[in-house]
Amino acid sequence: MTLFQLIMLGISAFFAYQVYQHIQTLKDPQEDSSSVEFDAEALVAKADEAMEAGDLQKALAIYKEADIKAPKDPETLFKMGYVLAQQNRDDEALEYYLEALELDEQNTYIHQALASLYRKMKAYDKAQEHIKRSLEIDDKNPITYFNYGNLLQDMGEKQKAKEMYKKALELDATLEAAKEELQKLKETA
User: Looking at residue 99, what is its pLDDT?
Assistant: First the structure.
């Protein structure tokens, strides 16, 4: 080795040692508590706000992000289905509702949403199946009876529809929509 090479080797070793010492003095980075980390629950709340404000596209995007952070949450899937149904994207809404139902078969809201969607699609048998299932879970919900009355009207079963409207009014005498539908049926009889 030449003298020049020895000097360069010494200088390299010196700088390597300086870097090593500097690295030893560094501390691990601390968690920055001021940074905002959104968990799935916070994202769902934010999406709910967007939905209430009428920004369905933004709500759907945030719900999808929440679904990525916490997959297979029936509430998030249900809400995604609801937003899609509001946008008349019924086939997509149906997929999310069915996935939510697989995860929470005892949820009356999911059954009612499916019944409404099937009714809109004129799949009355499937709609009736979900309304009945919702009533098996909770037979004290006047809205379910009201919705069942609407379905029965669409199916041409006026007398049974009257019975459902009456049942809805037994449970909630202030349900104006049921009063109106019952009155219409009485007038056409």
Answer: 97
> Cα(161)–Cα(156) distance, rounded to whole angstroms?
9
Report angle CA 27, 39, 79 to the nearest 5 degrees: 165
In one-letter notation, the amino acid at residue 91 is: D
* Residues ≥6 apart with Cβ < 8 Å to 82: 93, 113
Total H helices, total E strands in the chain:
10, 0
What's the alpha-carbon Rg for the chain, to the nearest Å?
30
The residue assigned the tokens 């945030």 is 62
166 and 181 Cβ atoms separated by less than 8 Å = no
Give pLDDT, residue 30. Answer: 58
Q: Read off the pLDDT band of 35 (50, 70, 90).
A: very low
Cα three-residue angle 151-79-141, rounded to 5 degrees? 45
Indicate left, alpha or beta for 104 from its phi (over 0: left) and psi (-120 to 50: alpha).
beta
The amino acid sitting at 77 is L
Mean pLDDT, the chain, whole residue set: 90
